[in-house]
Known about the structure:
Layout: E1 19-23, E2 32-35, E3 48-53, E4 56-66, E5 80-81, H1 90-102, H2 107-118, H3 134-137, H4 147-161, E6 167-172, H5 178-191, E7 195-199, H6 207-217, E8 221-223, H7 230-241, E9 247-250, E10 262-267, H8 285-296, E11 299-304, H9 309-316, E12 321-325, E13 337-342, H10 349-353, H11 360-372, E14 375-380, E15 386-391, E16 408-410, E17 415-417, E18 424-426, E19 439-444, H12 446-456, E20 462-465, H13 467-470, H14 475-483, E21 489-492, E22 505-511, H15 514-517, H16 524-536, E23 547-552, H17 558-561, H18 568-582, E24 589-597, H19 600-621, E25 624-636, E26 639-648, H20 653-659, H21 663-666, E27 671-675
Parallel strand pairs: 6-11, 6-12, 7-9, 7-10, 8-9, 10-11, 13-23, 14-21, 14-22, 20-21, 22-23
Antiparallel strand pairs: 1-2, 1-4, 3-4, 3-5, 15-19, 16-17, 17-18, 24-26, 24-27, 25-26
The chain binds zinc ion (2 copies).
Amino acid sequence: MRPAKKRSFPDTRPPVAKYCSVVFPLSTRQVFSYQTGEFSGTIKIGQRVSVPFGRRESIGFIVELSDRLPDVPNLKTVSRLIDAQPLVSDKVLTLAKWMADYYCAPLGEVLRFVLTASVRPPKREPVAEEVFYQGILTGVAQQVVTPEQKKVLDDLKILLTASEKRTVLLQGVAASGKTEIYLQLAAFAADAGGQALILVPEVVLVPQTEEWARERFGNRVAVLHGRLTPAEHYRLLCKAKEGKVSVLLGTRSALFASLPDLRLIVLDEEFDRSYKETRTPRYHARDVAIKRGEIEGALVVLGSATPSLEVYQAAKEGRYAYFSLKERIVKNLSFPEIHISDLRLSGTVAQKRRRPIISSTLRALLEERLLKGEQSIIFINRRGHSTYLFCEDCGYLFACPECEVTLVYHHTTGELYCHYCGYRKDQPPDCPACNRSRLGRSGVGTQLVEKELNRFFPDNRILRLDSDALNRKEGLDSVLAFRDGKYQIMVGTQLVTKGHHFPLVTLVAVLGSDVLLNLPDFRAAERSFQLLCQSAGRAGRNLPNAKVYIQTYYPDHYVFSSLPGFKFEEFYEKELFFRKEAGYPPFGYLANILFTGKREETVLRKSGEWAELANRMSGEMEIEVLGPAACFHKKMRRSYRRHLILKSAKPGRIQEFLRSLPDKQIFDKGVTIDIDPVDLF
Ligand SMILES: [Zn+2]
Ligand SMILES: [Zn+2]
């Protein structure tokens, strides 16, 4: 007898399923079995159901259907189907299962998260987050590409149609036109009947983006941003699911939208820290995007001027395809000149204490720009006025009672703020320790720089951009006013460095960048380098003779020495060398196990128990155990914090160890598991 010809159905589910497996958004890895009863003919994977659970009814997700009787006594029956259609596609469900496994999170919770992100609209985010993504927003009128762009685009189109997809690193210097490549590639995918997903960092896209994107894609583009009403958000995602959207633009949560024929995923500024989710499941959008690309057979393009070390190394080893854009779109426009100002040179301690906030060199550079009608940006890492308030008599330092961090003085309100928990109080006239009233301030914040600039240049308009300023209603409009030349100088925090396109800016000054370099984090150098390059990228995007002025106490550090001339390779090779020596990513894998609690003894005990267990199994599991130790922020919001770092040279070993632990231990309320952490505080 001839073997039956193998038939392939697009859907291999049995037409009638008697049993189903259900997960709940609970701290458990357990899957529960039910009879499908009257729904056996209609029930589908990805639907939500109401089922008896313990003594109550609970809502769970169907993750599997079967005709085989599960080996469970007293099987109960599904009471109700919640959704008429599955809420997630099979592919998104596969992705969720991978996430649960990789990030050691309960599948039920991952699914709840994915559904919240992709189906139910997110809560409206505060205006502070509305850093509209000007990299995409402006400078995008370009439709004609340079020869360099065309070459890259042609090669990417070939990769997009290839049956074997590869992850691509597209490294492009500032103003080299990466955005245009994303858009033309998305159009190419759309013309072939597929969809493209374009992700940008933490920002919420302003309606202007949509307006502009519509010019090219008509109403086949959907932009997910914080100004949508819940109903609008839901409607867009339904449209996307039905294949009526060709290009979906959004932040990391757009990654979970169901699209019928996804062909391209773009992650712009892939190194941006906002791609890492800070709640369970603590996923990294870059890694999930790569996984989704694999599941969907879509091309994944990671764009960046300064790639993360992980991506850089993968490209170097040939695991990712590599393309670069070395020229800027504006013809013959040279790169800004980098000026590193050595703070060590400047005199005695007493002189240093009196050091002006704006040095004479910087002041001259600013004046030059004002005369020419050009603009300047000053970037400083701290908001507020002064970052410390202390007693000059007894040394008392004003700190947050909940967090053990110093309070920051804001002169706009005359209050002291905790930037971690929001605690605030009026600045007291006297020292609470010695009752004397000689209170000193130190540490420079954005408000102080703004005040100084106003003193030097009273006839010019100075704009301050930080989350305090953005929280005011007009904050958003003032940035657009800056772009249009209505302000001459902008001073701000990190917000000023992100992807913006300000054509009139020819000077960027970076003050206090050493703060970042001094953080106890193995990525400190990488983060500093990326931030400095990103800041520098704001200068001279349209006009010649731009300058970048950077103050530091460590001019010899390779972060700074590789900046003039943008010697990227020099920086990356040095940094890779140190990472390799220490076994840190990309040459090793990490997990941060965080222990928190109101009672210090409990936190100490738990972290101790975990360390003992991990040490006992470290040989067998090939993991290294660092700690436990107090976190850099050892107390936050009245909660004590300790952590344990697990390190392994081999992929998957840390997860294997964690999987061997009981639910009770890894899903303990006071324990947070962070796989591939982006910070170790
Ligand atoms: Zn005192
Ligand atoms: Zn606090």
